[in-house]
Design a protein that fits this description.
Layout lengths: L1 E5 L5 H15 L28 E7 L2 E9 L10 E8 L8 H12 L2 E8 L3 H11 L5 E4 L4 E8 L4
Parallel strand pairs: 4-5
Antiparallel strand pairs: 1-2, 2-3, 3-4, 5-7, 6-7
Length: 159
């Protein structure tokens, strides 16, 4: 069973550490260097603890932490979405168990409105996930460049 837990200030170090591992994994798709301390830059990290428009979730399967998601309302394409999936990952050991699909659907249902989700075309797993998740909402497809695609769609509130 997937559970979403909002990240709190007391969880800052844990989120920082697992985000660093995620950012390292993303170097397969982006040419982001480490700093002199061996960390990857994430310019908006602190804002997930200060900006009320940003939310970070830990994703659990029962009692096991299996991933995280960052959500904000800031557009990648100059629009005005209600939500943007800024970051999303399920840790490698927990992949291929439908956790990503279940967690993504849960996040969308909990946050109805206009969504933007960006992925790198070289990240075939992310491309498959986000196209599957957004398909029922008939997304608009925007290509930022040859490598990045943004899906825009509306999630209706369940009544």
């Amino acid at each position: 069973m997937i559970i979403l837990r909002t990240v709190k200030e007391k969880d800052r170090d844990l989120l920082w550490n697992i985000n660093q591992k995620y950012l390292y994994e993303m170097t397969n798709f982006y040419d982001d260097p480490m700093d002199e301390n061996g960390n990857y830059h994430y310019g908006h990290f602190d804002e997930y603890f200060t900006d009320p428009m940003r939310t970070a979730y830990f994703i659990y399967s029962d009692d096991s932490l299996i991933g995280f998601a960052f959500i904000c309302p800031y557009s990648n394409i100059g629009q005005k979405p209600d939500y943007t999936m800024a970051e999303f990952t399920i840790f490698p050991i927990h992949r291929r168990k439908h956790y990503a699909l279940d967690a993504a659907k849960m996040i969308l249902i909990e946050h109805p409105g206009k969504w933007e989700i960006k992925y790198n075309e070289k990240n075939t797993a992310a491309k498959k996930l986000w196209n599957t998740v957004s398909a029922p909402y008939d997304p608009e497809i925007h290509h930022l460049n040859e490598e990045e695609t943004v899906l825009v769609f509306e999630v209706k509130e369940i009544i």
